Automatic annotation (TrEMBL):
Protein name: TetR/AcrR family transcriptional regulator
Organism: Motilimonas pumila
Residue ranges constituting the HTH tetR-type domain according to the UniProt record: 9-69
Domain of life: Bacteria
Any GO MF annotation of the entry: DNA-binding transcription factor activity
Keywords: DNA-binding, Transcription, Transcription regulation
Known DNA-binding region: 32-51
InterPro entries in the cross-refs: Homeodomain-like_sf (IPR009057), HTH-type_TetR-like_transc_reg (IPR050109), HTH_TetR (IPR001647), TetR_C_Proteobacteria (IPR039536)
């Protein structure tokens, strides 16, 4: 049973990776489940056994890629101190949003949203909105514990993520070479976390 489950999870991962590669390279409408199956090295029946439709597969791929590269739900447990956890989140998030996969995915959704509007909704719900909600819940818990003062957790979560994007993200989206070193980018993120913590420090 355990071996079968492992094989199933492995095939699911192959399908997710294949779909993301094809979606970002050729666009959502130009890809079929058969092409995804061929790219993944599995049968079309196997793809449908995991995902009932191309839209469902896209949703799963967005969720896996957007969240899997940043954090898991257990990584924002209220027991973790705000300063250290938010710093690690900032560093991980900053690296993720400038990655080739993230930029390609964002570009895909922006382009395809004209013809397939629901894709942008799927991307937002599976990626950005899920992270905003998780971070808002964490900040609300920190407010209850008295570690921070956060009267509007969702606003604060959006502020945190927006600040962390910085110049590196703007350059990545426009395909403009980044002149900052990795150390300079990390210094910016550390300073931004300090700024955020100071803004929401207990009164």
């Amino acid at each position: 049973m355990n071996n079968n489950r492992t094989k199933s999870e492995h095939k699911r991962e192959l399908i997710i990776n294949a779909s993301m590669k094809l979606f970002t390279q050729y666009g959502f409408n130009n890809i079929t489940m058969k092409k995804i199956a061929d790219q993944a090295g599995v049968s079309k029946q196997t793809v449908y056994s995991h995902f009932g439709s191309k839209e469902e597969l896209f949703t799963a791929a967005m969720s896996d890629k957007c969240m899997g590269l940043i954090l898991g739900e257990e990584d924002l447990s209220p027991e973790q101190p705000a300063a250290s956890r938010l710093l690690q989140l900032a560093l991980d998030f900053g690296q993720f949003i400038t990655s080739e996969d993230a930029v390609k995915t964002h570009t895909l959704c922006a382009f395809e949203s004209q013809n397939v509007p629901q894709l942008a909704v799927v991307f937002f719900e599976a990626g950005p909105n899920k992270l905003i909600n998780m971070l808002a819940d964490y900040l609300a818990a920190k407010d209850e514990q008295g570690e921070l003062t956060v009267p509007q957790p969702r606003w604060a979560a959006c502020q945190f993520l927006s600040i962390m994007m910085g110049e590196a993200h703007m350059r990545a989206e426009l395909n403009v070479p980044d002149t900052q070193t990795a150390e300079e980018r990390d210094d910016y993120l550390r300073a931004s976390v300090k700024f955020f913590l100071k803004a929401y420090a207990p009164e």
